[in-house]
């Protein structure tokens, strides 16, 4: 599997398709993130980028990208 470089323009659905374990890892971050486990929500957000999601939920984009990258690296270890 080719590793995706995560940026603000990365589509969230692409991350979940390539790294399905991220759903469980993200849910561990708190109730606000449990939304990613809902298939209906995943379809609604399918065209959202990381930047879109960070803006919508008032999250720090750099921190989100770092956390996602760390989750992927940890999973590969």
Q: What features would you describe in this structure?
A:
- The longest helix is centred in the last third of the chain and has 16 residues, at 61-76.
- The protein has helices at 12-18, 22-27, 39-44, 50-56, 61-76.
- It has five helices and no strands.
- The chain is an all-alpha fold and 77 residues long.
- It is globular, with a radius of gyration of 11 Å.
- The protein has one domain (12-76).
Key words describing this protein structure:
77 residues
Q: Into how many domains do the coordinates divide?
A: 1
Assign a percent range to the helix content.
40-55%
Give the biggest beta sheet: none
Strand element count: 0
| Radius of gyration, in angstroms, nearest whole number | 11 Å
Average pLDDT reading: 83
Gross morphology = globular
Order of helices and strands: HHHHH
The fraction of residues assigned to DSSP E strands is under 5%
The residue ranges in which pLDDT falls below 50 over 5 or more consecutive positions are: none
Number of helices: 5
**Category from helices, strands and their pairing:** mainly alpha
- From the N-terminal CA to the C-terminal CA, the straight-line distance is 15 Å
């Amino acid at each position: 599997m080719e590793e995706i470089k995560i940026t603000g323009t990365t589509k969230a659905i692409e991350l979940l398709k390539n790294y399905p374990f991220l759903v469980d890892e993200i849910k561990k971050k708190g109730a606000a993130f449990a939304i990613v486990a809902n298939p209906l929500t995943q379809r609604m957000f399918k065209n959202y980028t990381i930047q879109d999601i960070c803006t919508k939920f008032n999250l720090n984009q750099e921190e989100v990208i770092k956390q996602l990258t760390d989750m992927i690296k940890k999973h590969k270890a």
